[in-house]
DNA sequence: CCTTAGGCCTGCGCGC
DNA sequence: TGCGCGCAGGCCTAAG
């Protein structure tokens, strides 16, 4: 559950269980998840801090920490492919999911109640790390697609300035932060753009369409709490998101295009499975080839 | 600057 | 049923 809408959903769902609680302990069973430091070092950085606020930036969940009312660094969590955050009211019950726990934090509430934040991650690509300065750590990210900076004019100029293939550019988090494979495919379809077009050749009206497509796709996905494919990967509350039912092209190879009825094609662009309607998203003219 | 291949990991579904 | 293969929502690195 790893693109912007799924991360937004995750942050919203853990927020009420985390804000205001104090970290009383830390454990890690997969060291790479911590992204560098040893467990003891990580523990020393976070234990005793209070989680003041839970926010999202791009595909990162940010736990803002405080000590004695002053900022004391952040925990940055990236779910990558299979990461999940769950909060248990009762610490440490060993169920099926327990096997995939990589990091956990013991928590104490203002009223004294305890809980456990668990970072679960089947494939171990995700990260759960402490940083002193989250702004510095995330400085390379591009604008938020639902933020103020991301305007039609910004996108028109930004596309014009880049000589890159459209899909990998949209997946590049330093260009625009938060899109992944699913929402890029869905947005390009909605905008009528072929994923292999050159960014600088996208006409203004298509760029405007893309801007609208990205925002509406993400907003609708957030409304439906993201996309969930199988029974295992779910929101922290155990409920699947439902946006997958609204996919127009992603994962729909061979099924009819919702607009024209032609079968959806699957191709590989920049090593990523890519889904398009060849009629609604016409291919770019091959270089050197006329009419 | 850009692009591609490989690596990181595990589990699932498919065809044989 | 079992086995090998290809696939997966991400992203970093090295090399061309």
From TrEMBL:
Instruction: Domain (FPG-type): give its ranges.
Output: 248-282
EC numbers listed for it are: 3.2.2.23, 4.2.99.18
Alphabetic keyword roster: DNA damage, DNA repair, DNA-binding, Glycosidase, Hydrolase, Lyase, Metal-binding, Multifunctional enzyme, Zinc, Zinc-finger
State the needed cofactors, names only.
Answer: Zn(2+)
Q: Which domain of life is it from?
A: Bacteria
Q: Which residues form the Formamidopyrimidine-DNA glycosylase catalytic domain?
A: 2-126
UniProt family annotation: Belongs to the FPG family.
* Organism, as annotated: Saltatorellus ferox
The record's annotation in PROSITE patterns points to: FPG_CAT, ZF_FPG_1, ZF_FPG_2
Gene Ontology MF terms: 8-oxo-7,8-dihydroguanine DNA N-glycosylase activity; class I DNA-(apurinic or apyrimidinic site) endonuclease activity; damaged DNA binding; zinc ion binding
| InterPro entries listed in its UniProt record | DNA_glyclase_Znf_dom_DNA_BS, FPG_cat, FPG_Glyclase, FPG_N, H2TH_FPG, Ribosomal_uS13-like_H2TH, Znf_DNA_glyclase/AP_lyase, Znf_FPG/IleRS
GO BP term, example: base-excision repair
Q: What is this protein called?
A: Formamidopyrimidine-DNA glycosylase
Reaction catalysed by this chain?
Hydrolysis of DNA containing ring-opened 7-methylguanine residues, releasing 2,6-diamino-4-hydroxy-5-(N-methyl)formamidopyrimidine; 2'-deoxyribonucleotide-(2'-deoxyribose 5'-phosphate)-2'-deoxyribonucleotide-DNA = a 3'-end 2'-deoxyribonucleotide-(2,3-dehydro-2,3-deoxyribose 5'-phosphate)-DNA + a 5'-end 5'-phospho-2'-deoxyribonucleoside-DNA + H(+)
- Report quaternary structure and partners: Monomer.
Q: Gene3D superfamilies attached here?
A: 1.10.8.50, MutM-like, N-terminal
């Amino acid at each position: 559950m790893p693109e912007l809408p799924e991360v937004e959903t995750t942050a919203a769902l853990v927020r009420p269980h985390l804000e205001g609680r104090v970290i009383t302990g830390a454990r890690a069973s997969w060291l790479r998840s911590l992204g560098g430091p040893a467990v003891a070092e990580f523990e020393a950085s976070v234990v005793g801090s209070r989680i003041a606020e839970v926010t999202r930036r791009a595909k990162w969940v940010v736990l803002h920490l405080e000590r004695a009312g002053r900022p004391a660094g952040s925990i940055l969590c990236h779910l990558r492919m299979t990461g999940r955050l769950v909060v248990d009211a009762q610490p440490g019950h060993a169920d099926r999911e327990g096997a995939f726990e990589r990091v956990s934090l013991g928590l104490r509430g203002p009223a004294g109640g305890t809980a456990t934040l668990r970072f679960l991650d089947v494939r171990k690509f995700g990260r759960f790390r402490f940083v002193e300065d989250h702004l510095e750590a995330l400085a390379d990210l591009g604008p938020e697609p639902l933020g103020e900076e991301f305007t039609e004019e910004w996108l028109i100029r930004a596309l014009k300035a880049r000589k890159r293939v459209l899909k990998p550019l949209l997946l590049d988090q330093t260009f625009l932060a938060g899109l992944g494979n699913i929402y890029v495919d869905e947005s390009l379809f909605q905008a009528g753009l072929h994923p292999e077009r050159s960014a600088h050749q996208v006409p203004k009206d298509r760029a405007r369409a893309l801007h609208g497509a990205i925002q509406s796709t993400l907003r609708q996905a957030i409304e439906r709490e993201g996309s969930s494919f199988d029974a295992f990967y779910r929101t922290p509350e155990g409920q699947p998101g439902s946006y997958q039912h609204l996919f127009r092209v992603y994962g729909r190879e061979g099924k009819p295009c919702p607009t024209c009825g032609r079968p959806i094609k699957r191709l590989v662009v920049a090593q990523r499975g890519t889904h398009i309607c060849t009629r609604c998203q016409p291919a770019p003219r091959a270089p050197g080839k006329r009419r």
